[in-house]
Amino acid sequence: MNAINLLRQGVTCRNLIKDYGSGSAMVHALRGVNIDINPGELTLLVGPSGCGKTTLISILAATLDPTSGELSVLGMDLPHLTKFQKAAFRARNVGFVFQQFNLLPALTAAENVAVPLVINGSAKCPAVARAMEMLAAVGLADRCHSLPAQLSGGQQQRVAIARAMIHEPRLLVCDEPTSSIDAKTGQTIMELIRKEAVKPDRVAVIVTHDARVYDFGDRIITLEDGVVANDRRAPARATSSNAIVEPSAVLAPVSPLAIVAGRS
Ligand code: ADP
Ligand code: MG
Questions:
Q1: How many CB atoms are closer than 10 A to CB 130?
Q2: For the chain, domain boundaries
Q3: Percent of the chain having pLDDT more than 90?
C-alpha cells in the first residue's frame, strides 16, 4: 500500500464550518475545524456538551452537510457528492453507534444486526447467519432471537456495535456509546470497541465526555465551542515520539510521508 492510499483512507477537515438556523437564531456549531484522523487507531472526540461533537461526526458520516470548508473522508470529497452518492457512501462505508442504541424494536437482535448487509443487497438468510456470527463475537450468541426490549442496555449496545460493524465499514463513529449504561458495563463496551473495532484500514472515532474511557483511545481530540482546543496522544498509549500531536500536524495539510512515519 503506498502513501497516497494511506492518506486516502483517513479524514481531513479544513476550516470546517457548520451553522444551524439563520438570522438572530443562527447557531455556530463548528467554527473552523482543522483535523486529520488516521485509520488504524481509536480517536476519541471529547469536550463539553454543546461544543459540536455530534455535529462533527454526523458530517464525517455524511448524515449532515457542512456549511462550508473542505472535507475528505476515505478519499471522498463529501461536500460535493450528490444526495444519492452520499446515501451510497453511508450504506457501504459507515457504521454508526448511537447513545440510545437505536435498534428497530420489532426485529430480533440478529435481524437488527443484519440490516446493513440487507441494505447493501444481501439476501436475508445469509445476512442473518452472518449477524449471528457477529453477535457471538460480541458475546451474545444466546440472545440472537431476543427483541431489543428483552435485552439490557449493555446488551442492546453490543447489538448496536455488531450492527455497526457487520458490513466492515471503513469509518466507524460512535456517539457517546457508554453514556446510557452503567460505568462497569461502559468499560466492557469500550473494551469491546477497542478489541473488535480498531482495524488497520478503518477510521474509528468515539465521542465521549466520560473521562474514565480516555485510556481506551490512542488519541484524544478536544473540541471547545466549535473548534479544536487540544489534540494529544492518550497517556496510556503515548510513546516518547508521539506523546503530543503537534499543532502544525493538525493545521497544516497532511504529508503522506508524515502518516507513514507516524505508523512505523
Ligand atoms: P455536542 O454533541 O458536543 O453536545 P452538538 O453538535 O449536538 O454538540 O451541538 C452543537 C451546537 O449546535 C449546540 O449549541 C446545539 O444546541 C446546536 N445544535 C445542534 N443541532 C442543532 C439543530 N438541529 N438545530 C439548531 N441547533 C443545533
Ligand atoms: Mg452530542
A1: 17
A2: 3-103+168-262
A3: 73
